[in-house]
Amino acid sequence: MSVPEGRRLIVGIDKGTTVTKAAVFDETGNELARAARFIEVLSPRRGWHEEDPAVSLRSTMDAVAEAVAALPGRASDIAVVSVSGHMTGAWLLDETGRPVRNAIAWPDARTLDTLTAFEASPPYEEYLDISATSALPGMTMLLLGHLARHEPDVIARTRYFACAKDYVQSFLTGRVVTDPTDVSLMPGDIATGRISPRLMELVGAEAFLSRAPEVRPSGEIIGTVTREASLATGIPEGTPVANGLGDAISAMLGTGVVMPGQAVSVLGTSWLNQMVNRYLDDDLRGVGWVYPSPDGEHWIRCLAHTAGAGTFDWAVRTFCRDLAGGAASDFAAVEAEALASEEAGHGLTFLPYLSPAGVQAPFKDGNVRGVMLGLEHGTTRGEILRAVYEGQVYAAMDCYRRQGDDLSLLRLTGGGARSRVWRQTFSNALQVPVELVTTSESAALGVAILASVNVGIWKDLETAVSEMVRTVGRVEPDPRLAEPHREAFDRFLRAQAAARELFAGFGRAGDQGKD
């Protein structure tokens, strides 16, 4: 497909869980316009997370319309549109593509008891054989099984089940289509990239099998903008729409991570550690999540550990009360104290497992808790802070060392990526370059990159990434710190093993009597 020279703008839509965003990019990845709208969350019962699909769709289209209107006279230059969306959950649509009930989003916990029982049953091993991915309460198949048992009347009214981005795409094109990345977390058959009848049977969702959407390759042109969608967005009728991606994969692509050995860590509330691999390592079976890469040639494994912003905030509250006001200058002072302490040479070992949920990756242990080893009378606050920073990096390092390919490049994003200490520590501990990227809308840029290839703007994904993703900083590893970090990481792993044994008999505080 060839694109006229002047018509090379790309609209990337990121349908988020709480915020939906739209951005217009040029062919070199420059963000020309952006708009956002909040998504209203509905909680009809405790632990439920729903949204009104029609309301969310209007919010999404309003964001698109605002972004397009910010470039007056240039709508005709839009070459393609693509959508990223939060993964899994359940959007039930009728024959016309309209919702038959509220959408259920991924944070929903209504299937938690069912999932707990399922994970303890023999069929769960077969589930892992087919899906290769850890189960979550908000996964599509578990939700469909729940609806089949508790709301069987919706089955007859449903023509398609879908994910968030699929619903947005269906409005744009009039066609309900999903892609292998979203299927991987429904979950589907990881070997084929298709929806698995056997998995649906295992979770009691077989009644919905005939309601499955069509699965088409990520990035494929699946239709064009309809007249109704054109009126809602300002995008010209007939503009191609490329099949999008689940947001985790799209955000990874938007940081330019596409080749085996490349990785991105999202330093947020939890830390998402995602790496491109040539093959799947069976040792991590059932831990984290597995997706096909956007081009279908490799695998992406996401290992999320809970030692994120909450652990750092705890350290600041506990040890830096005089600096815990939250101002940027306060956190600069925290960083300065940590930097004044010797990197990997302070003698402390910190296990950052403060979450009540314990550890979810690269192993599952709901009992293990945080530990600080090596304290003595002369220990300074700066040394404690340095140990906290390093312990969080070692937890991520533990995730990467268990994956198949050797890590060659790490990109950081999320709020924690602004930290000089974390950037330096990641680079020195892993002995790889660490880079930051310019865009704040990595998921929208990710689908824009993939779409640009499928309309012929760029010849392949590697070229598109090189042209559309920009870095704003690069930290090179200091080889003199390789051995000190290796020794410190070895102490971290030995402390981890000891803590898992120590806490194994304690159980989780406060869990007694819960379902």
From TrEMBL:
Keywords from the named record: Kinase, Transferase
GO terms, molecular function: kinase activity
Lipid metabolism found in the keyword field: no
Domain of life: Bacteria
One Pfam family from the record: FGGY_C
All residue ranges annotated as the Carbohydrate kinase FGGY C-terminal domain in the record: 306-454
Keyword set includes rRNA-binding: no
Carbohydrate kinase FGGY N-terminal domain mapped to chain residues: 10-254
Similarity comment: Belongs to the FGGY kinase family.
Protein name: FGGY family carbohydrate kinase
